[in-house]
Design goal:
The chain is built from 16 helices and ten strands. It is globular. The strands form three sheets. The protein has a five-stranded mixed β-sheet with strand order 1-2-8-5-3, with helices on both faces. Strands 4-10-9 form a three-stranded antiparallel β-sheet. The protein has a two-stranded antiparallel sheet with strand order 6-7. A hairpin with a 4-residue loop joins strand 1 (32-34) and strand 2 (39-42). It is of the alpha+beta class. The relative contact order is 0.19.
């Protein structure tokens, strides 16, 4: 069996199965300081949920302090293109800037626009499942991540933004390079790759936005160039670029991993797979929520402590923990999603689980704006698989990529016959 797995987000063994370590963390103090990452780790559902909504915390601190005040070194010059892009998206802004940006983006990225995409998402999922069936028609293994999980969301986000088909091959490498910088072990090479990707993607989006201003189209990029609030405020060009990069990263990278992780969970539980195949009309929606909960593709969100906080209330045999301004919290959504205080038999994969108040999309003002689209994409992929590939089975044990903040499979070999 080996030694117990401890919280070690840089360890491949931990990334593959962090859940035993999460169990240990939840049984300990409300917050535990991790010397390796210099973060206070919070693992219980009630605390994670509360802290995601707590306005004494922020995704950034730069609206109230500089790096030196928070004990952080100056940022290297080579990262300037990366941070300029990321900090012009709403995820790394706090009110009032965040409020303004989210209001503007929400006016363009509407529920109606997502619903209009549903038939196209279903068509794409069907075409990709056709490719999966063709590739595996001789009984040989096929990589479900490469054939289905990756192409669907990148095609959807490209069509949503209005990226021409000839340019879509650029998006996945840009997204992967940028998202790598969110990992705890990102190094200089990762930073330089992310900065280059931000610069290239930014230049590309500026050119495409100029085209859309001159010749509007029925796409989200055009809508973002035109949207204005009641006072006539608009997105700056830098904010437009930051928003599109955020939509690509959040709406693509996480959805790829959620699909791979979710299907792998389904294939590891054949009785649940059979139950879903028997009644997809009733069970597809709760099955999608269970996939999002059970093996979370975004198991950790970070927050900065802007004002001193007390974590925990001293009940349950543990003392409350005082965390001072300037500290960073690691809020473990993946652990919260397996908390037995909220989920009955939390380590059981149950496609009929209800209620299912998982925290995979976060909570509070930074709740994922693209959650409805992610749900639609996952439902289309899984729905097409359970209806059309009844003999779908894992061909080998898949390996996870090294990242923990954005966590998913390198590949998922399956057979379809």
């Amino acid at each position: 069996m080996g030694d117990p797995v401890v919280y070690q987000p840089g360890s491949p063994r931990f990334v593959t199965d962090p859940y035993p370590a999460f169990d240990t963390l939840r049984a300990g103090p409300p917050a535990l300081y991790d010397d390796a990452t210099r973060q206070w780790v919070v693992s219980r559902y009630a605390l994670v949920d509360r802290l995601l909504r707590d306005r004494r915390l922020g995704r950034t601190y730069l609206h109230v302090a500089d790096h030196a005040e928070f004990g952080r070194p100056p940022e290297p010059a080579y990262l300037a293109p990366f941070w300029a892009t990321i900090r012009n998206g709403m995820l790394d802004r706090e009110p009032p800037d965040h409020t303004r940006l989210r209001r503007l983006v929400s006016a363009a990225f509407t529920a109606r626009r997502v619903e209009q995409l549903v038939p196209r998402i279903a068509t794409l999922a069907g075409e990709l499942v056709d490719e999966l069936l063709d590739a595996g028609s001789d009984g040989s293994p096929v990589d479900l991540v490469a054939v289905l999980a990756e192409p669907l969301p990148v095609t959807v986000i490209a069509e949503l933004l209005g990226v021409p088909e000839s340019d879509r091959s650029l998006l996945r490498p840009w997204s992967a390079a940028i998202c790598r910088m969110f990992e705890l072990d990102a190094d200089r090479a990762d930073g330089m790759a992310a900065a280059a990707a931000c610069a290239e993607f930014g230049d590309y989006l500026r050119r495409l936005a100029a085209t859309r201003r001159a010749t509007p189209a029925d796409d989200l990029l055009t809508a973002l160039t035109q949207v204005a609030d009641a006072d006539g405020g608009r997105l700056s060009e830098d904010e437009l670029v930051g928003t599109c990069v955020l939509l690509l990263n959040a709406g693509h990278e996480a959805t790829v991993n959620a699909t791979g992780n979710g299907v792998w969970a389904l294939l590891r539980h054949p009785e649940q797979h059979a139950q879903l195949r028997a009644d997809p009309a009733a069970l597809l929606a709760p099955a999608v929520e269970e996939m999002l909960r059970y093996d979370c593709a975004t198991p950790m969100f970070e927050r900065w402590v802007l004002n001193d906080v007390t974590i925990g209330d001293g009940t349950g045999g543990t003392e409350a923990v005082e965390v001072a301004r300037g500290a960073e919290l690691a809020l473990l959504l993946g652990s919260a999603n397996r908390d037995p205080a909220v989920f009955a038999d939390p380590d059981r994969f149950d496609v009929s689980r209800s209620p299912n108040p998982h925290l995979t999309f976060g909570a509070g003002i930074h709740f994922c704006l693209g959650a409805p689209l992610a749900r639609r994409e996952l439902a289309a992929s899984v729905g097409a698989l359970v209806r059309r590939v009844p003999k779908l089975a894992a061909a080998a044990e898949p390996a996870y990529k090294p990242g923990f903040v954005v966590r998913g499979l390198r590949s998922l070999p399956v057979t379809v016959r």
